[in-house]
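ESCALATION

Customer reports they have been waiting on this structure for their group meeting. Please prioritize. Original submission:
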Amino acid sequence: MSARSRQSVDPPILIVEDKDSLRTMLRLALEAQGHTVVEARDQPEAEAALLASHPAVVLSDLRLPEGDGFGVLRASKELDPQLPVIVMTAFGSIQDAVAAMKEGALDFLAKPVSPDHLLLLVERALTQRRLTTENMILKDELAQRRGAPLIVGDDPKLKQVSVALHRAAATDTTVLLEGESGTGKELFARALHALSPRADGPFVAINCAAIPETLLETELFGHEKGAFTGASQRKPGKFELAHRGTLFLDEIGDLPLSMQAKILRALEEKEFERVGGTTALHVDVRVVAATNRNLKAAVAARQYREDLYFRLSVFPITIPPLRDRPDDIATLARYFIDRFCRDLNKKPLVFSPAAEQELRAYGWPGNVRELQNCIERAAILTEGETIHAHHLNLSFRGPSLAPPPDDDGGPWSQIDLSGTLGEASRRTLLEVERRKIEQALKEAAGSRGRAAEILQVSYKTFTAKLKEHALE
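Update from on-call: job pushed to the front of the queue and completed.
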């Protein structure tokens, strides 16, 4: 490793105290409990230590030879508004401690300091810091798309995936989940995390395709205060938040080339720098990646780094598309309808034989996600106790698995020409759009940005069309 500084992602405790004997006693008490300690004797030293070490807790005397504890408190809060600060003061100056708490200090210690009381306050401060981090993760979780809480299905191909998942979960190796959009890759990643020894740690997910390239680095690695315009305070990235847990990198195939080298280093060395920072942070993270692209083809086309591909695909698991496990379609449909009936406070619904037949005949290009959306829509539209074929509205969603018996098998054989001229025209236009989008994605080796360029539409329009056709 180079001579640059390196620190654990478990931050130290900063002690600001000018008396050597008291500072040493505080350090020894904290180190005896396994904490790392950084020391400073006055406000200028404390400000330098804040920038260099980004402590988890600051413990500062209010009276200092240069500057004071109020200055240390303000510098701490300017760096990180959530940083817990404990102030120390003589018994006769409790009013100063109260004033410091009004300015944002978490608590105070009266001198002479009791080591037991010190450790109690530090543990309380660390708990508050952990809760703040967990709250950030929970907010991200709540923003994610709702999905099935269980892996549903009995198909042998799915069972093979389950066996591979259990084997991978027992290790700490990097796993690459491959499969079409909508097959439930994030669901499998969460299952892997829950089965692993890291189950008590955080599960942090990020969609590499959903974040603009200019923001992706700060989302992954965080940034320091002042790293760019608008960076008013330090922000931890996803790698940091996933410390001692699992980081799920969804749509890893859409990583821009400029980011691939940085991801590779983070995977190989388990360290990185925040944007605008110079200190290397070391993390203990298990990475699970997912892609709907053919990464081997992207490597051959020089659109993806070969070394990153090999680093990601240590343990590849391919999730089969829904059309390859047709016996699971009815099982999943019944699972979803039971769930949506509970959510909508509706009486249990059943599928008519024609509806079940249509579910089985349809190709499900959007896989389980499309099936889930279809069943939710049918649950809302159905007024009686039976879901009929017209409630599924599949004629607008693309071709079925098999052409009608009387067509010639030509390129337009799978277009539904029933209904009025306007209805048939609309279905045909949607089918042309869908096929053109699929063709562009294939030509662009799965790159959405390149596919949008081929079709000469904006990236925003292209992603909206992907969602419309259940191809995302």
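Sent to customer with the following note: The longest strand covers residues 85-90.
Escalation resolved.
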